[in-house]
Amino acid sequence: MVGPDMENLLLVILLFPLLGAGLNLLIGNKVGEKGIGWIANAATGLSFLTALYVFFVSGGCQTGLTLSLIEWFHFGKVSIPFSFYLDGLSGLFVLIITGIGSLIHLFSMGYMHGDKEIKRYFIYLNLFILFMLILVMASNYLLMFVGWEGVGLCSYLLIGFWYQNTSYSEAANKAFIMNRIGDLGFLLGAMLMAYHFGSLSFADVFPQLSQFSDTGVLTTIGILFFIGAMGKSAQLPLFTWLPDAMAGPTPVSALIHAATMVTAGIYLLARTSALYVLAPLALDLVLYTGLATALLAAVIAVYQNDIKKVLAYSTVSQLGLMFAAVGAGGFGAGVFHVLTHAAFKALLFLGAGSVIHGLHGEQDILKMGGLKKSMPVTYLTFLIATLAISGIPPFAGFFSKDLILVTLYEAKGPLFFGIALLISLLTAFYMFRLFFLTFHGSSRNDKEAHESPASMKTALIALAVLSVVLGFLGLPHIFAHPLGLSNLLEEQLKTAMVISAPHLSATTEIVLMVITLTAVVIMIALSKRKYGSVQSLMAEETKLTTLEKWASHKFYLDEIYDKMVTKNMDRLAQFTQLWADELIFHNISSLSGRSVRELGLVMRKIQNGNVGSYFTAMVLAMSLILIYFIFQ
């Protein structure tokens, strides 16, 4: 079914976002605000339609499509092509990026209405889509790193979009710098891979892994790649940038920090699954880090009052669950949760954006309430997303979370299942806390709320539909369908321990499912009882225990990092400036200058203009030369 020119369509997928950014740069001022928005929307929409065509016409991309353009680098025996590769795994991510990205572009037209810098906004947004596509479609780790850095740059530009606000600029700097720490790990891992395998191309490296006997090298590469994933996907200890990144426009939070960029770390590990299953120590590190991050972020989210901060810590927590699944060998389970999470978390962020838009910029959930009647579409779609992330059937999150929980139970036992279940219960509690405080009860805001415009509501409804239907890809009979996740990922993740549905007995799965659902429903009821009325709200929120105050202040992690890392680095920089720069380098450069000057003064005395002196010096020199040759 794959035509001879199908590979060329990979380039078309990439060129549409680039074309959109270029057109807006050239003619954006002439076409006006609506024209800018529609150009950006058309670019991502056409890219999505092209990807959809390639994905289905090529039979789910199971065979893989490769487009090689030029030989990019050649040093020694290492040759790195500038080429792109699309298979089931990368194809799934391409559909997420362009599909969810198109809806977020549509939402942005209403949300950013009236902003004087809307042209710059949509150019950044299109460029982000371009670099994210390069990241997931690259056929080698070096080209993937180009996309990796590109999305980091675009993230920096979009977080600090309203750069006139100093705090927003500082948040952008923080995100950029913390991501560079992780990027160093990625780069070192790629260098080590090139040294030992003579290539960075997937097609060259992966076949060599089964014959490679040095487990220590594989473990080191796996850990270094995971450090890169820690930064990009906000895992301990590099996760504190993500909540601050909410400084940018809310659609940016939905696109970059919920649906696409932060899942790049999961993609990196899933793409490298053939290496990780041969490096169990690296996988264990992924598992423990993911669970610790998920639990810590879930506890913090319970005590946040900024609507976007709650969702930010929720994102960190959900990413931790994905990493935990991958660390338990469930690469398919982790990728499945990426898919469903992209829909319902983007919907939550856009729903939050609709609320903020309707309340003229208000983000404190303690100052909301009673929005159910004034914002019915936002209310209903937000409820669907909240049910999905809480794991209530038949919404998408139920299927992917259940797969993660069962995977952990089967691979690691009841303890790890219990920790993941606790995280899921906390998720249900803080999400319904957010939901009840925002939409139920009486209004605690003097601003008159209004429903969002049509473009924003259309995006919300489309994401709500996806938050329901995507979960059914996880049903066993659909999972094994030619276009189901099992078959899409089989070739790419064939070495993974858990690809399709886990192999527990039906009775065990049903018991685990019933336990989980019962506990989640109880947690939702507790949340409703505690936050369903304004009277109990104020009393509870002003009486926090010491531990709860720590959680509300994010366990003072930023303060700890500032004291232990930032200030010590400042001291080191001051020491280096004083002793190395001023006392050593400054004196060396000064000494060299003085030496030349003194030598010039000496030589000036020799050049006195007296012909007799020159003749005498010439005779002495000739005499010395003659004496030398006589003795020789």
Query: First CA to last CA: what distance?
Result: 88 Å
Gyration radius from CA atoms, angstroms = 30 Å
Question: What's the helix-strand series?
Answer: HEEHHHHHHHHHHHHHHHHHHHHHHHH
Percent range for β-strand residues = under 5%
Can you summarize the main beta sheet? 2 strands, antiparallel
**Which runs of at least 5 residues are low in confidence (pLDDT < 50)?**
477-483, 494-501
Please give the number of β-strands.
2
Q: How many individual helices? A: 25
SSE-based structural type:
mainly alpha
Q: If you average the pLDDT, what whole number results? A: 85
List the helices and strands and how they pair.
Elements: H1 8-57, E1 65-75, E2 78-86, H2 88-111, H3 118-137, H4 141-159, H5 166-197, H6 202-209, H7 215-232, H8 241-244, H9 250-259, H10 264-271, H11 273-276, H12 280-302, H13 307-327, H14 331-358, H15 376-390, H16 396-412, H17 414-439, H18 454-469, H19 476-479, H20 485-490, H21 506-531, H22 534-541, H23 546-552, H24 557-606, H25 611-631
Antiparallel strand pairs: 1-2
Helix pairs in contact: 1-2, 1-3, 2-3, 2-9, 2-14, 2-18, 3-4, 4-5, 5-7, 7-10, 7-12, 9-14, 10-14, 12-13, 12-17, 13-14, 13-16, 13-17, 14-15, 14-16, 14-18, 15-17, 15-18, 16-17, 17-21
Could you walk me through the main structural features you see in this protein, from its secondary elements to its overall organization?
The protein is mostly helical and 632 residues long. Among the domains are: 249 residues, no CATH class; 72 residues, no CATH class. It contains 25 helices and 2 strands. It has a two-stranded antiparallel sheet. A hairpin with a 2-residue loop joins strand 1 and strand 2. Helix 2 runs antiparallel to helix 3, helix 9 runs antiparallel to helix 14 and helix 13 packs antiparallel against helix 14. The longest helix has 50 residues. The protein is globular, with a radius of gyration of 30 Å. The N and C termini lie far apart (88 Å).
